[in-house]
């Protein structure tokens, strides 16, 4: 009997995208529970670390985006089978997560803009250049292998945030300077199940 899965996050993609995409690609049945900020405030004290996303599996609640993404990829059969390739997948995923988590913020918008622009010109560029080099070295259809893995989904998390303008004060075309990364993103977007997912979101 398949597990009962409930993913809870806000009504936008960001950190939940790798999880949602993995379930969608794999045809895994789950409840995609999208809550408002007000609803999040009401439930915050009940969450394991007081944050979203969380994944409830058969009544037990789990946290941490990349852990949930790996679970989703396992169910969806999106894992690399070779140990070295699997390490390369996780390497890219962790770098992409770091790219998001290390992004500076500030209550003052002027200062936040200054910090984000500095971040985009230094640390963020270094992280994405590393990923771009790794993808170029692999020279596969997707980021690490010829099939979609967690690496592609975590990459999409950042690229989509940039392209839709939710990564504040970083240009929407920022990743255009990384050709291999862009190629891997385009390959993922061409996957029929991924196209179908985003078509559903546009309705």
Give an overview in words:
The protein is an alpha+beta fold and 203 residues long. It has nine helices and four strands. It has a four-stranded mixed β-sheet, with no helix packed on it. A hairpin with a 2-residue loop joins strand 3 and strand 4 (60-62). The chain is globular, with a radius of gyration of 17 Å. The model has no long low-confidence stretch (mean pLDDT 94).
Task: Describe, in short, the structure shown.
With 203 residues, the chain is α+β, with helices and mostly antiparallel strands. The chain is built from nine helices and four strands; from the N terminus they run E-H-E-H-E-E-H-H-H-H-H-H-H. Helix 6 packs across helix 8 (179-189) and helix 7 (150-163) packs across helix 8.
Blueprint (SSEs and pairs):
Layout: E1 5-9, H1 17-26, E2 31-34, H2 37-43, E3 54-57, E4 60-62, H3 65-75, H4 83-101, H5 109-121, H6 123-138, H7 150-163, H8 179-189, H9 192-201
Parallel strand pairs: 1-2
Antiparallel strand pairs: 1-3, 3-4
Helix pairs in contact: 1-3, 1-7, 4-6, 4-7, 6-8, 7-8
